[in-house]
Design a protein that fits this description.
- The chain is an alpha+beta fold.
- It has two domains: 5-273 and 499-521, 3-Layer(aba) Sandwich (D-Maltodextrin-Binding Protein, domain 2); 279-493, Roll (Dipeptide-binding Protein, domain 3).
- The protein is 27% helix and 22% strand.
- It has 15 helices and 21 strands.
- The strands form four sheets. Strands 3, 10, 11, 12, 13, 14, 15, 16, 17, 18 and 19 form an eleven-stranded mixed β-sheet that branches.
- α11 links the parallel β16 and β17.
- The longest helix has 18 residues, at 466-483.
- The radius of gyration is 24 Å and the shape is globular.
- Residues 1-38 and 513-522 have low confidence and may be disordered.
Length: 522
């Protein structure tokens, strides 16, 4: 038996499930009246970006994932503290050689009343492999599924990897018969872009692309906690933070997660609103080219890290929402190694002089559409000037930046980016971002090469023992910290502004967007 197994009844709800417990009514913010809420309540939430499709194969996109996690169930997911738990999987077990996963399904039904079976799991995974888009990159090791009966199956992998288990958090199981009926010539992509074939705690009630998406509670869901969930949830697309702010103030929406820090001051201290801060698996990083130019010298990289005022970034650029980053992995992730950065201009100047690079120039790319990046780039430019390095700033797009990573020579000296792990498994980030086999690809941003690091991470991801893998991940991060491979600046937070009070509101590391699972009003 390996330690990669679970069979307990999940303690949380699987999607955007808002369970009501003696809560205030969802009233306009101008009203002071409250009453005991019932499970017939509804909630309207503003969202800054609409999904381009709701086909679960594309759930690697956080905006799509936030919709699909309501409509669909996954086999396995993460708890808020980063532990794996079964969802549709009553139990699951990774083989000791990390090349297969045995799964027993719980009794569950799709929204049309048909039962979820092992054939539906096989169909879903085979479709992802066939299409080769979206979450296909996260489950690239999928080979086949052996169906034993309606409730038991084995997922076979092409090579050993325990990261695959965590990647199943983004695999949403399809009603195979319903999709096959509407498959057309594109394996159902056109149909699934606008229709629901899931078993999740909510059904699709209304979908107007780019405008509105509404869910209604599915009363046949397997999780008893969903019985008291809010009856209807509506997401309205409102692109501008200022408009979201005004809608909340007017009482036409009840919650938002996309208010800019500059606009949050409108709600702070106002008793009619609640602000809830949730850490999430994303952050702000400066990536160094570790193979070319003066940033190939670890002393130079360390000097640059020591030159920055991290507290000022948190206070002024993020409005105090979030945290100073303390390691290569976001704070919400498991198996982290930590080393808190601190500004020390004197030591930074000393390292620059020791490296013999005083007066040198570097180029850093950033995305000016993000105010945080614009301001952080300017601040770092000013700080580096004080230690004898001239930083030239160049605007870019994320797409163009990924193109630059195709070779060491075209990779910029430095890049200021937002990043998040492909899945909630620490190996998914450590492996793809820093393993030398990805040098010259679009995932090893720093073009980093270190055989000792590679050995630790590759041993971890092929281990069938979770505790051993976790220890190896921490050792690998210690190497990244010692080598100053990346300058981690800030861990982001989701700030939920609402006219209702929530209890049990948590951020789940498998889902970058706000996924209010196990949320209660109270």
């Amino acid at each position: 038996m390996t330690r990669w197994q679970a069979g307990a009844q999940p303690a949380r709800i699987a999607a955007v499930v808002l369970a009501l417990v003696a809560a205030p009514a969802l009233a306009a913010c101008g009203s002071d009246s409250t009453s005991t809420a019932s499970n017939g309540a509804s909630l309207t939430i503003s969202s800054s970006a609409p999904p381009r499709s709701i086909d679960p194969v594309l759930a690697a996109d956080a905006v799509i994932d936030e919709v699909d996690v309501a409509l669909y169930d996954n086999l396995i997911d993460y708890t808020a503290d980063g532990k794996l738990e079964g969802r549709l999987a009553q139990s699951f077990q990774l083989a000791p050689d990390a090349k297969s996963i045995d799964i027993t399904l719980r009794d569950a039904s799709f929204h049309d009343g048909s039962k979820v079976t092992a054939e539906d799991v096989k169909y879903t995974l085979d479709r992802i492999k066939q299409l080769g888009v979206g979450v296909a990159t996260q489950v690239a090791e999928y080979d086949s599924t052996t169906v034993k009966d309606d409730h038991t199956l084995t997922i076979n992998l092409s090579k050993p990897t325990n990261v695959f288990v965590g990647a199943l958090s983004h695999v949403y199981i399809l009603n195979s018969k319903l999709v096959a009926k509407n498959a057309g010539a594109d394996a159902g992509q056109a149909w699934l872009a606008n229709n629901d074939a899931g078993s999740g705690p909510y059904e699709l009630a209304k979908y107007v692309p780019t405008q509105t998406i509404a869910f209604k509670r599915y009363d046949g869901h397997w999780d008893p906690a969903t019985k008291d969930a809010i009856a209807q949830i509506t997401y309205r697309t409102i692109a501008e933070s200022s408009t979201q702010r005004d809608e909340l103030l007017a009482g036409t929406t009840q919650a938002s997660e996309n208010i800019d820090p500059a606009d949050l001051s409108q709600f702070a201290g106002n008793k009619k609103f609640t602000l809830t801060q949730l850490p999430k698996a994303s952050g702000t990083y400066v990536i160094f080219n570790t193979q070319k130019g003066i940033t190939a010298n670890p002393k130079v990289r360390e000097a640059i890290r020591l030159s920055y005022d991290y507290q000022a970034h948190l206070d002024h650029l993020l409005g105090g929402y979030g945290n100073i980053a303390t390691g290569p992995l976001p704070s919400i992730m498991p198996c982290r190694a930590e080393s808190a950065p601190a500004m020390d201009l004197a030591k930074a100047k000393q390292l620059v002089d020791e490296a013999g690079v005083s007066g040198s120039s570097l180029k850093m790319v950033f995305q000016p559409i993000f105010g945080e990046q614009q301001d952080a780039a300017t601040a770092l430019q000013s700080n580096l000037k004080q230690i004898g390095i001239n930083l030239k700033l160049q605007a870019t797009t994320y797409t163009d930046y990924l193109k630059d990573l195709k070779s060491v020579d075209s990779t910029p000296d430095m890049a200021l980016i937002f990043d998040n792990p492909p899945t909630a498994d620490p190996g998914s980030m450590l492996f793809t971002r820093y393993d030398s086999q990805f040098v010259g690809s679009s995932t090893n941003f720093s073009q980093y090469k270190n055989p000792a690091f590679d050995a630790l991470v590759e041993k971890a991801i092929t281990s069938g023992d979770q505790e051993q893998a976790c220890d190896l991940y921490k050792q690998a991060q210690d190497i990244l910290i010692k080598d100053s491979v990346v300058m981690y600046m800030a861990d982001h937070a989701t700030v939920v502004v609402s006219t209702v009070k929530f209890t049990g509101l948590k951020q789940f590391p498998a889902h970058v967007g706000w996924v209010p699972q196990s949320l209660r009003l109270g």
